[in-house]
Specification:
It contains 10 helices and 7 strands. Strands 3-2-1-4-5-6-7 form a 7-stranded parallel beta sheet, with helices on both faces. 44% of the residues are buried. It has one domain: NAD(P)-binding Rossmann-like Domain (Rossmann fold). The chain starts with a helix and ends in a 19-residue tail after the last strand. Strand 5, helix 7 and strand 6 form a beta-alpha-beta unit. The chain is an alpha/beta fold and 267 residues long. Helix 2 packs across helix 10, helix 4 runs parallel beside helix 5 and helix 5 packs parallel to helix 7. The radius of gyration is 18 Å and the shape is globular.
């Protein structure tokens, strides 16, 4: 067994939506380190996208656009199709959050979150299906990695109703898409991140020590944590992982016990 090849992404072509900042940029950095030939990144803010692409060099191509709208999805898929004959890895990372009190929650906030977090994820994968299918082989499947959240696995106390619902939808949609796309040698999986410093998770970015108090590992996530999981799933090492969601969260979902909680068994 060649350990280096097991986790290598040599020669792969990848697309990371929302790849100019936060978790998307962490994944970009990891994929480049693992040997990707070329990584496309997308974002609405063209200047921020350009700055990120320039930082990492010629292997990174920034494609600005708004994939929360179907026009943006179509444009992105068409542009990738003009540039490439195949796509080895698609990471559906772009996302939005919106919080309002229950009594006042707006349709605008609901639609913004659900359209980007769920609708665009599905339709972008659909539009890129021919390129993913062209890359997929029995001995080296193409990969689709959806980025959900631990908030799709358990509720949090914040009034971010569509965000939590959308991430639960992504997790179940991953299972259904996986069952269909494995027929075309395309493996679909999902990552549920916990607390990572980003513009979306301002608490972890501004006060990581405070955020760490609610995490069993007693720290917020860093680039190596999330990139390591994404490299595993995208590489040969993850070829037999189909439809699964992996929490990369320092133990919040599966190892968290409230402080001062009593053992219900009485032991």
């Amino acid at each position: 067994m060649d350990f280096a090849k097991l986790f290598s992404l040599d020669g792969r072509i990848a697309l990371i939506t929302g790849g100019s900042r936060g978790i998307g940029e962490m994944l970009l950095e990891g994929y480049l380190a693992a040997g990707c030939e070329r990584v496309y990144i997308t974002a609405r803010k063209a200047q921020q996208l350009e700055e990120t692409a320039e930082k990492y060099g010629d292997k990174v191509v920034g494609l600005p656009g708004d994939i929360s709208r179907m026009e943006g999805v179509d444009q992105l898929a068409a542009e990738i199709g003009r540039r490439e004959s195949r796509l080895d890895i698609l990471v559906n990372n772009a996302g939005a959050a919106w919080g309002e009190p229950f009594e006042e929650f707006s349709e605008k906030g609901w639609d913004k979150v659900m359209d980007l977090n769920v609708k665009s994820l599905f339709f972008l994968t659909q539009k890129l299906h021919p390129l993913l299918k062209a890359a997929g082989r029995a001995d080296r499947p193409a990969k689709v990695i959806n980025i959900a959240s631990i908030d799709g696995l358990r509720p949090n106390p914040w009034e971010t109703y569509p965000y939590q619902a959308s991430k639960a939808a992504v997790i179940h949609l991953t299972r259904r898409m996986a069952a269909r796309l494995i027929q075309d040698h395309i493996v679909v999986t999902c990552i549920a991140p916990g607390a990572y410093p980003s513009e979306m998770n301002k608490a972890a970015a501004r006060n990581p020590e405070a955020s760490a108090k609610g995490i069993p590992s007693r720290r917020v996530g860093v680039a190596e944590d999330i990139a390591g999981g994404a490299i595993y799933l995208a590489s040969r090492a993850g070829d037999y992982v189909v439809g699964t969601t992996i929490p990369i969260d320092g133990g919040i979902v599966n190892a968290w016990i409230p402080e001062n909680a009593q053992d219900p068994s009485g032991l």
